[in-house]
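Quick question about two entries, pasted in order.
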Amino acid sequence: MRFLTRYICMSAHWTRDAEAAIAAARRQAADLGRPTTGTEHLLAALLASENSAAAPLLTAAGISVEAVRQWLAPHLVRSGTPLPEVGGFTSQAEAALAAARREAEGGLEAGLGHLLLGLLAADGIAHDTLVQLGVNRDALREAARHPAPPSSVEPPGEASRKLSGLATDAGRALRLATEEARRRQHREVGSLHLLWGLLRLGGYAPARRALHSLGASAANLKRGVEIALETLPQMAEAGESRTGVQDATQPIQARAHALARSLQSRTTSSLHLLMALAESAGPAAGILIGAGVTFPRLRQQQACHAVGEMAGSMTREEAKRMWQRFTERARRVVFFAQEEAARLGENYVSTEHLLLGLVRESDSVAARVLDRLGVSLGRIRNEVEKQVTRGRGNLGRDMQLSPHAKRVIDLAYDEARQLKNEYIGTEHLLLGLIREGDGSAARVLIKLGVDLERAHREVAAMREDETRHYTGRSRFDPSAVADSPADAAQRLIAALARARDGATTPEQTGARLEGEFLGLLRASQPDLKHLRGITDLTRAGAHALLTYAGLLKQSLPVRLSVHDRLLRGQTLAMIFEKPSLRTRVTFEVGMAQLGGRAIYLQPSDIQLRKRESVPDVARNLGRWVDGIMARTFVHQTILDLAEHAGVPVINGLSDLEHPCQALADFLTIQERLGEITGKKVVFVGDGNNVAHSLLLLGGLLGAHMVVACPEGYEPRAEILEATQAYAAASGGSAEVMHDPTTAVQGAHAVYTDVWASMGQEAEAEQRAQVFAPFQVNAELLAAALPEAIVMHCLPAHRGQEITDAVLDGLQSVVLDQAENRLHAQKAVLVMLMSQK
């Protein structure tokens, strides 16, 4: 193998740039602890340098280089200790190198463009990444053979317009965007101008129809864009032409073209441009998200039109009715089937593509049926891949369902009717694939022992289990369940999948939430009466809260009837001595979603310790309400409320701790990074209340916690001691460091907070000088792991503790943290107040 590798590399006569890229790929593989160099390392090396000639080739082919880097990032994670050298190349990488040499067509040297083509021709992670992003091999080959002169600059949008058909509405939106930038004398055409152009299109344009379907007011969006446009810099009075604006929308246009290609659309429409805008990180995306126009929701809108195209003979209304009958997961199967067909170079979605799409939806009812039949999803994919052949897809055609695939849809409808299900779910698609009989998918399934009778039996058995164990049960019966919260959580996750697929009613799933797992949630820490701080929690209690918070979050799309009975009729009093956005809104919304209500008490209402003592306030509130949340200055206020109220008390923030924030933070870490145990979390900044709760909860859950702060601003000694005691039992660790760059090395999460909290305004200027070296910026983040996430509890002082580029960057999860305040606090409310 090593001889073959050396032969390929030495005999290929690579250009200097290509030789350097191959060497860099080998170094990267060694640094990541990989024994061989894969296609992912080769592709990453091609794009590592800003001056690399490979990046312009992808750009010329309509692909965002940054998008490629994002797709590659999860595959470039360290899997062991760095190696002194790697032994050679994987078989896929060797095939890619050989294909690159063939692409050189007998020339003396193979360059970076040939290497890109070789990666696209061979199997592997690089091939899958490029295909998923819609790379057109012919366009890439043309760019590699005839590279554009470095000085040639095309007019805005012209490069993208050449590569795939630009729909009339999309072209008009780009022209309107350019006109608006010129009219306002702005220096460049940006995302805001493009959004303005899309909003000025007629109501029949796909983008405008999508906005209308999502309930987004075009007038309100226009007002938001107008305000944002006023803040953009204008051209200089002299020395700059009023018409020579620069186009800064090329990455957005490239992403729109990639979306159109991946969805096998004939042209790039205004809807694709809108989807690319919503997926970007610019100000236009913020305006869209604020109006509820997100990329996933826009993709759903695109799907209705896509199904009409695939079905061919269907009218638009028939396609719409058909699509409305599909569950969310069944729709995703169709999306995935389109992508699989495109990956394999086909213009038709056939049964094998539907089956490949089905196995990609690994948390569906169909996946559970296959698991009960003893057939793994990976085995199915391998069998299908052996049988399919690669076509030469024509991007000028719309992708339609093959006759066999159309019959699968008809049979899935029939299966849903027979099972008396209102919606078509993944299990019905599976049954339709088996019943169809003549297609490749049916042959694969039957070969693996998945026959129709057994599949029917397992689907029926799952429904019987649902009815036997949970229908009608509204309270926990300890005798009915004898396993762990983790086991119950797995069953409940499966129940949520069935509810999303329409196989069970929300009421049945709600009975589970209120019944089985709620009882086990309480059983995880039965003596928990208050959440005054993280020290009130046991490790089992903390794990149960995070699990339950995730389940409540997953249940939201099923409809609120899943859990709006959990705190029905109960009232939470909210005491605020400090102003708040996230704490107030999330507790109020959380109580409403759980069926209760919240009462906001501002500082002037009760005037703690001035108009009335804390114990007296607590005793009165305890007679009227079912729980108290307090956001206060002094931690002793929390302790006094808990001592005298007689109802559960939750610390919404005090000078000592912020436990609700920490729970939301570790829920986010768990969602993004998986298992918390062993993860390194570095807090950079003041050793304040947020740092205290993060330390304690991280130590409790087995994380490696580091606080990087200036000398004299360390966390309290008793907090650090308690964290170290927790870590000794959980396998984690805790330490304080004073060099931020050293501290963040190997970090999975980098967290920061304001340098001067509320009540410390007088120290703000002094603290700004002391903490300046502790700013979280791109340079500091580069010392962490490539997959590290950036966290901030908000509000942020942009340009102080964190830069705009990092806070708004791809690694930032601050909005996920903010959203998870809602779900984590709902879990706390249920755990404490549902026992009444």
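Here is the second entry:
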Amino acid sequence: MPKLTLSQLERHLFAAADILRGKMDAAEYQEYIFGMLFLKRASDVFEAQRAHILREQRVDYGRSEADALKRADSPAFYQEAFFVPERARWAYLRDDLHHNVADGLNIALGELEHANPALNGVLDHIDFTRQVGKQARLTDTTLRKLILHFNQVRLRDEDFEFPDMLGAAYEYLVKFFADSAGKKGGEFYTPRDVVRLMVRLIQPREGQRIYDPCVGSGGMLILAREYIQLTGGNSRNVRLYGQDNNGSVWAMCKMNLLLHGIRDADIALGDTLAAPFHKEADGELMHFDRVITNPPFSQNYDRAEMQFPARFRYGFAPEQGKKADLMFLQHMLAVLNPGGVLATVMPHGVLFRGGAEQEIRAGVLADDLLEAVIGLPPNLFYGTGIPACILVLRAPERPGVSGKPEARRGKVLFINADAEFRAGRAQNFLLPEHVEKIVATYEAFHDVPGYARVATVEELRANDCNLNIRRYADNAPPPEAHDVRAHLLGGVPAAEVAAAEGECAAIGLVLSTLFVPRPDTGDRRPGAGSGQPSSGLGPDETFDFAPTLAVRADLKPHIEGDAGVQVERARLQQLFSQWWAAHAALLEKLPGADTGLLFARRQLLESFELLLGESAWLDRYQIRGVIAAWWGEIEYDLRTLDAQGSFLALVDSWIAGLRAALEEGNGRSGNGDDPLAHPLVEHLLPGYLERLEALAAREAELKAQLAEGAGSGGAGDGELDEDEGEALSPEERKALRQQLNAARAALKALEREFLTRLEAARTELSEDAAREIVLAIERERLEAELDRRAAACVQAVVARVENWWDKYRVSLRELEAAREQAEATLAGYVEELGYGG
């Protein structure tokens, strides 16, 4: 059977939520979706394992049917799958549970948990009989709809196009519920772009212990493990630990880990500050190689309740006033192995508040533990709109010896990335290029003007341990230049033009094509007054715009069409083509490759930066951002390619996604993304979209002719009353209607044939042809990403020149003269009307 794609599975889960949406808030029904998903997944995997056991017992061991069934129904035979009791099996829920469905589902969850010790506490918080608002509980009808909906898709590993796809879909659900929950979503969900950034900062490796003391939904542990896998490590050779004090969040985390296939993670329930759970056999606190977390901001704590007070070697922050942030930090430091690394999200207040918190910072700096302070944009997190930061710290290698690399000892890197984001409707988010810039700067550990600075610990201590990021890395843009003389007399100042020459030269633009020297008016500088164009460019020189630039709208086409710009654009394209020819083989070799995806990503990124750095169009971070953004767009395609080992399998995945979108009504007239816009369509059905657009245009043209001929502006659909309008004769209207109906019929027929034509074209593809198509599509996507960045560079120059036009094109004297002329004209009108005097 065809593999299930991630987009299909996400749509399936979203449609399940649709069954309950409107009856209650997302925060109320999320547990029902999670519970039903877990029941279906556990049952599907169990049934596959049960069939395997029965076959093995009958064929390999020659046992009777009764003996085979006895073993297949024994929990002892299920080591890699959960044992599912009969009343929790999907066939029973689907076929036999028609009345008191909520009670039956609760029984199923209870029996499943009871039969599997690993599930203790994970499912018992889900209560299908719980009263929701004024409604007693979900009706049998609604729950049956939910059961029948989940019955549509089988959830075995072999059904997915790449491993851990169910986990990725569960993450989609978790994010959906976090979005719906708003501020409460911050209790369990950290945006995944932030988590991926933090994981890359700490670089977990196989064989390590990784710990999240405020684990939430478990995303940080999951992505840390994923990072190990994508870098070519053995993700099974890692130990994951976490703790959370919210029971429902703890259960969500456990379920998240289980659906990602992680059964051995040690996740505890309880208050980490008061009573850390993870201990060694001798009762001492367990230590970890990596710690990564987003603790709750600005909480109070009770010192009297705290176990292991030696954790807080640098002091205690005030118990009240919501200042427990540095207490969490000290706990993390206390449980780091020698040389271990931690990354944590913190509010900015911990960087500069005085009193006990200042003393804690002083102790951390004195022991040279702090490696980096990274300022993040505002409104990234669900729990708060205020900006936050990431702190990166390293435990000492041994007492008195810093755990930092030699070159970083006694230094702290400050990165001010608070302007690196894309604004969203409800929240801001980091793009792959923003993450890439932060990671590259952290790894290089050097100054970047207006972005990052390396400060010495001595400097920080001299500043009273104030770690305010802007104090060391101020990214505030310089004030916009305004030349008073130019405002008064007109002309673009030479100093401003000279300051932009580097930016313009990078795209091949010679500014002399935009300007001519401005004639000296005789009153700008002492000794001037010849009235002739100036020779040389003194500090007070100004330029006029070239005579060919008569209006502001002329600037953009002039710059975009400039010969020098076109030459540099062509050179950039040539460098790209050269790079692709040399490195596309990395993608060709992905199926069956032994190296991880992130290894291929790093090679592509570094080679891209090396070669395209020869062009001055983009700086190194923008160049890396091109690859990072492209990779983020195609990552799941590459996972499918890597897992299936076939380019044809990826083409099949794309076609399955198109089919699902069209079947769900997300066609060209729907509200969703246009499925036909997928680049595969043009490659498999060349010219199809042009024919479709031509027919759509013809339909629109005929409708417009009928509406115009009706004389009323109505009847946009072409359905007119016989007595409406006289612009067209009845015969002409009849002929137009016939043509319109024919165009509509041809359009609908072509749309209906789409999937048939697409699948027919697919059957003719060989693996080699599929490889060529996939590589061509991925190249087009990358080239489009590069073109967008190059276009943005040109638009930045256009905006600068347009700003000069707005500021200096019309001088104050010209405005005064125009005002005087207007006043004189008005006075003449008044005089003519007899109101003068």
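Reply: Residues 521-538, 667-672, 712-725 have pLDDT under 50 and may be disordered. Residues 767-808 form the longest helix (42 residues). Hope that helps.
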